Amino acid sequence: MKNSIFILLLTFTLGAQAQVVKTLTLKEAISYALENKADAKKARLSVKNNEYQIQETRSGALPQLSANGNLTYNPILQTTVIDGAGFGQPGTIIQAAFGQPWISTAGLSMTQALFDQAVFTGLKAAKSTREFYQINEQLTEEQVIERVANNYYQVYVQRQKLTVLDSTYKNTTKVKNIIKGQFDNGLAKKIDLDRILVKISNINTMRQQVINAVQIQENALKFFMGMPIETQIEIPQKAFDVSVQSLVETPNTANRSEYLLLKKQEELLIFQKKSIEASYYPTLSLTAGYNFIGQGPQFPLGGKPVDGVYWSDFSSIGLNLRVPIFTGFSTRSKVRQADIKLQTVKVDLDDTKLSLDLAFANAKTQIDNSLITIQSQRENAQLATEVLDNTRNNYIQGLAPLTDLLDAENSLTEAQNNYTTAILDYKLAEIQLIKSKGELKSLLNN
């Protein structure tokens, strides 16, 4: 029994030691996400897969070589009716069987496209296709960075709220001890003690709610990072300094990944249209083949002339020309569909540019407002701290009622939470401003 308890305690101790808290700066969180998040991994795999797609396209311009073989057994040979005059027997009909019961062929065949407009267009589109997937990878990484940064700051806010509640609980407990001492000495009313106990109970309830919110927000952050949920993390306070962003220059929308991706999509649609139009062009290909054929009354493989099996070779070289004349307007319909897709992506380009301009304008406005709010709430929190200190001293000296003290504590808690929320609003707007400049990866340098 003692051994079992010892093993259980040892296991618990080792498990507790294994849960090392990982301190995460924003840069570390982003770097981890870019390496481990599924979206980033899939984007890299898409780039790699595209290289194989390009190789597949290029193969259409290379010779196609194949080996072939065939073995046929004819139990009954087909007879052909021939005029006997050709064999010195005019006026007669001869029935002759051609071929042998066993026939085997083996050889090589080659096809080389000499002119195929669809293949040539595909080769020209290869570079744009590669760039499309590279830009898509960049856009995916930016989306990962944005989600991680947003959730990173959300965790900070929840933890700050928890810190405020812990401080409030500590201060309120001090007041409770004072009131209890006064009550025990007959200097305070029981209702005052009851009210402060209710206040502490409410703080505990709020604290538990915030603890739950912190855990949920941390789990969300770890999900967006691709980090195991059971990992314990800690965010350093110094990561949240407020620094004024440059709001003077207007970002160049044409450099944004979202816009560049649509432009590459437009290029690819143009190539797609040209590939469809290639159906109007003729195609020309070179074919060549070299084969051996064996025939005889018995299984030909390994057979020799003494066995009645004869082997011979033959070859051919040819040109295949295909000229399209009428396809029932199928090609024309496909070309018009390609035109509609091009018009659609042009509309998307205009809308995306408008959306990106709107995001920058909103982020700029939010930055300005947040800086004003942060300054106001910082001063408000300092003033609320002074009011609470004065009210507490007045209450202890009997110059202020308990209601004033509780109101002062509530005001300080609210002011501190408002200050924290203002910082969050600023940091979220800062992310959007950095994003609008196309500089999200600069967060990796902080």
UniProtKB/TrEMBL annotation:
Keyword terms of this UniProt record: Cell outer membrane, Membrane, Signal, Transmembrane, Transmembrane beta strand, Transport
A GO cellular component annotation in the UniProt record: efflux pump complex
Keyword Signal in annotation: yes
Cellular localization per UniProt: Cell outer membrane
Gene3D superfamilies hit by this protein: Outer membrane efflux proteins (OEP)
UniProt entry tagged with the keyword Coiled coil: no
Domain of life of the native organism: Bacteria
Annotated GO MF terms: efflux transmembrane transporter activity; porin activity
Signal peptide: 1-18
InterPro entries cross-referenced by the UniProt entry: OMP_efflux (IPR003423), TolC-like (IPR051906)
Pfam family, one: OEP
PANTHER family assigned to the protein according to its UniProt record, in alphabetical order: OUTER MEMBRANE PROTEIN TOLC
Family membership noted in the UniProt record: Belongs to the outer membrane factor (OMF) (TC 1.B.17) family.
Protein name: Outer membrane protein TolC
Organism of provenance: Flavobacterium micromati
